[in-house]
Structure formats: C-alpha cells, structure tokens
Inverse folding.
C-alpha cells in the first residue's frame, strides 16, 4: 500500500514532499507580505487621519467578511489585468502574466494582512504610554521612536498573535490549489486522480499539514520564550 | 466598470443565496449539537472521553477545510464497502458531503468556544446551586448552560461568520451557491472585478445581518463584553 509513496519516478513520495515545501514557501511569503500590509494598515488605523482610518477599516472589514475563495478568484482572474493596467500607465504595453506562486502570495498575503493588521494594532496599543513619552523626552521621533523603542516591544507582544495568523495562512494556501499552484493540496489531487487512491493521498496530505502545524508551533513557542527573556512570565504583561 | 453586467449578474448570483443559507444553517445546527458533545467530553475529566475529543479538535483545526471536503467527497468513496453501505446515497451527494464536512468543522471549532464558556462559569455558582438542592442535571440546565450561552455568544457570532465564508468552498465540489455562480460568470464574461464586487457585497450583507442579530442577542442576554 505504501509503494505509492516511493521516491523517484515510480512513486509519489518526492512529489508530495515537494508539495509540502511549496506550501511552506507560499505560506511563509504570504505571511511576510501580510505582516508588511499589517504594519501599514495598523499605522493607518492608529493614525489621526480620518481618511486613512476609513481605508484601513474598509480593508479589514471586506477581507474578514467575504470568503477567501472570492479574493483568490479576483486576483487569479484579475491580477494580470491589473498589473498590465498599471504597467500601461508607466508606458509598458506588453503582455504580463503573473505565475501562480505570485498570485497565490498576493491573494493569501492580502487575506493574512487583515488578520495581521488587528494583531499589530492590538500589540501597539498594549505598549505602555510611558514608553512613547519616555522616548519623546529623550528627543526621539519618527524612526528613532518607533523603530528603536516601540517596534521591538510590539514584535514581542505580537508574536503569539502572528503565530495564530500563521496557522490561518497555512490553511488558506490550500485554496490557491484551485489556481494551479502545485502545493500539498494540488499534488495530492493529481496523485489521487492518477492512482485512483484518493483516500491514501488525502490522508497523507492531512498528515503533512499536521506535521507542518506541529513543527511551526514548536518554533513559535521557542521564539516566544527567547523574546520573553527578562520578563516575569508569558502573559503576565 | 460594466454596470449593466453587474446589474444582470446580481440577479443571477442572488439565486445562490438560498443554497448558501440552507447549507450554513443545517450545518450550524448539527455542528452545535456535535460541539456540545465534544465540549462535554473534553471537560468530563475521564481520559477515555477527553483524549479522543482533544485529538478530534486538533485534527480538524490543523488541516484546511478544503482538504477535509476532498477527503469526505473523494476519499471515502474509494472503498467498495462504503459504496455498498446504506450511507452511500448520502455520501455520493456533494450537497450532503458539504454539510457533513461543514458540520464536523464547525463542531470542532465551536466546541472550543463552548468549552471556554462552560469553564468561565464560576465554581461558586455550581456550589450555590448544590447548596440549594439542585441535582447535577438541573444545575447544568439552569445554571451552567444559560451563563455559558451568554459568555460564548460573541465568539460564536464570529464562528457563524466564518461558517458563511467557509460555505463558499462547497462550490468546488460542483454546488452552485453564491461563489459557484460568481465563478461561472467570471469565467464566461472575464469581468472578475465587477463580479467580485457583486458577490462580495452579498456576503458582506449576510454577515452584517449576522453581526446585528448576534449583537441584539448579546444585549438581550446582557453579555458582559471583555475589554
């Protein structure tokens, strides 16, 4: 029964592992893009500028209120068109096609970004006001204040939340299999179709996801411990 | 923007609303029953009950819903003993596979919400009700349950929204609900932005109604919001 998972051309073992690697890669790049989006929109939400607040709130409401699949369809069918439209403004008239990895990263990154926005906003809010005041008293502003004083503290507080966002992001990447990116989901579909053994391959996919989840949980716990050194205990602050 | 197309597709897409709502409500009701059972198993204190419940929740929360859906729809049908069993008329229908998968999924997620709600009931209340001579079942029904409902409601409201969003996945196994119809129109007209706006707004309206309804229920039950 397990010969279907042999490596090389006779089995699907190496293909499934490559699929798992692709899932991890696309999840990681989506998470990073999402954190970047999260920082920008959290800054918008925390700013005093009304229009920025509205934009950020609209973004998080839309992403959290409509199915991920619709967002993926929008970018899958409309992504290349949008890029070509922007390129035309800059004077480039050729045909641009985005690959499935890029579209997947943008789509899942946009979804993940909405959750990261809330996590980062909450983390910034939980930094004590005294830290801002102390920084200002020391004559810091802009990057000095936010980059050197506030950000390290925000990063530490946001870490458990980002860990949750990672889990959501990891599972959301399964949806981009519908656009043709060969990650775990797509690979097990292909293998199931060609061997007529869907049960085995979907079980293998389940195990792969659980292993990735477990390993990343361990990594995040480690990171939390490392960055909480010098603090009384987890959750005490 | 092709407004005429948006106007036309609106009437096509709203035909998918009944299926979305039907699947969501059936799986929510069944899932809630499952969630209560799983939550009670987890806090039962008996290892033979709590360990299977723990792993069930772990398994469902650790894997993508799409994979669970494929597993139920394609994976189970591989075996001849399932195809010959009395369950086959149900399991061969994408409609029921969608409901089964969504039920299991929401059952696992909501069991955690319910467990949190039950654990938030102060021991003093249980002791007080014991002192008043209420037996275990009465204590659960009259004291624990109402407080649990009140505590769990905000989180459960989120779960309902997630269910509406999750129901879009059943379009992948050929069911023509909102997302399924939207996808068909997109591939026919190649107007992703317009159709996205129409279908997205419909989902936002459904979810907005849920938010309002849960908010109303919260106010009626006097849920104390955590700050």
């Amino acid at each position: 029964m397990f010969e279907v998972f042999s490596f090389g051309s006779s089995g699907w073992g190496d293909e499934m592992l490559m699929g798992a690697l692709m899932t991890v890669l696309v999840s990681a790049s989506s998470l990073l893009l999402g954190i970047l989006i999260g920082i920008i929109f959290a800054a918008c939400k925390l700013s005093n500028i009304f229009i920025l607040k509205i934009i950020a709130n609209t973004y998080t409401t839309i992403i959290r209120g409509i199915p991920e699949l619709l967002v993926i369809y929008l970018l899958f069918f409309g992504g290349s068109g949008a890029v070509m439209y922007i390129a035309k403004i800059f004077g480039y008239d050729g045909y641009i096609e985005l690959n499935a990895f890029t579209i997947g990263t943008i789509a899942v990154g946009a979804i993940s970004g909405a959750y990261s926005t809330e996590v980062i906003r909450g983390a910034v809010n939980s930094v004590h006001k005294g830290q801002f005041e102390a920084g200002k008293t020391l004559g810091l502003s802009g990057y000095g204040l936010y980059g050197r004083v506030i950000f390290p503290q925000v990063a530490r507080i946001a870490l458990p939340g980002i860990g949750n966002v990672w889990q959501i992001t990891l599972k959301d990447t399964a949806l981009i299999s519908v656009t043709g990116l060969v990650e775990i989901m797509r690979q097990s579909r292909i293998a199931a179709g060609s061997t007529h053994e869907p049960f085995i391959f979907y079980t293998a996919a389940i195990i792969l996801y659980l292993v990735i989840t477990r390993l990343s949980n361990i990594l995040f716990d480690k990171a939390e411990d490392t960055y909480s050194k010098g603090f009384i205990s987890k959750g005490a602050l | 923007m092709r407004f005429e197309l948006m106007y036309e597709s609106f009437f096509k897409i709203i035909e998918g609303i009944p299926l979305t709502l039907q699947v969501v409500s059936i799986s929510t009701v069944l899932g809630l029953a499952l969630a209560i059972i799983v939550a009670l198993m987890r806090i039962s204190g008996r290892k033979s009950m709590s360990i299977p419940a723990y792993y069930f929740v772990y398994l469902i929360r650790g894997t993508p819903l799409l994979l669970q859906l494929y597993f139920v729809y394609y994976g189970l049908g591989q075996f001849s003993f399932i195809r010959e069993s009395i369950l086959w008329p149900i399991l061969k229908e994408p409609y029921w596979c969608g409901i089964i998968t969504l039920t299991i999924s929401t059952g696992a997620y909501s069991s955690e919400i319910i467990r949190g709600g039950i654990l938030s009931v102060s021991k003093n209340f249980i002791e007080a009700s014991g002192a008043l001579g209420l037996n275990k079942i009465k204590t659960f029904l009259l004291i624990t349950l109402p407080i649990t409902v009140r505590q769990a409601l905000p989180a459960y409201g989120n779960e309902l929204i997630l269910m509406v969003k999750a129901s879009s996945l059943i379009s992948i196994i050929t069911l023509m609900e909102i997302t399924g119809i939207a996808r068909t129109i997109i591939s026919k007209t190649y107007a992703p932005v317009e159709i996205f706006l129409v279908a997205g707004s419909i989902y936002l309206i459904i979810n907005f109604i849920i938010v309002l309804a849960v908010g109303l229920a919260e106010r009626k039950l006097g849920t104390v919001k955590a700050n």
Chain A touches chain B at residues 61-62, 64-71, 73-74, 76-78, 81, 167, 171-175, 177-178, 184-185, 188-189, 192, 196-199, 202-203, 205-206, 209-210, 213-214 (CB under 8 Å). Residues 13-46 of chain A form the longest helix (34 residues). The domain at 14-227 of chain A is CATH 1.10.3720.10 (MetI-like fold). Chain A has a mean pLDDT of 89.
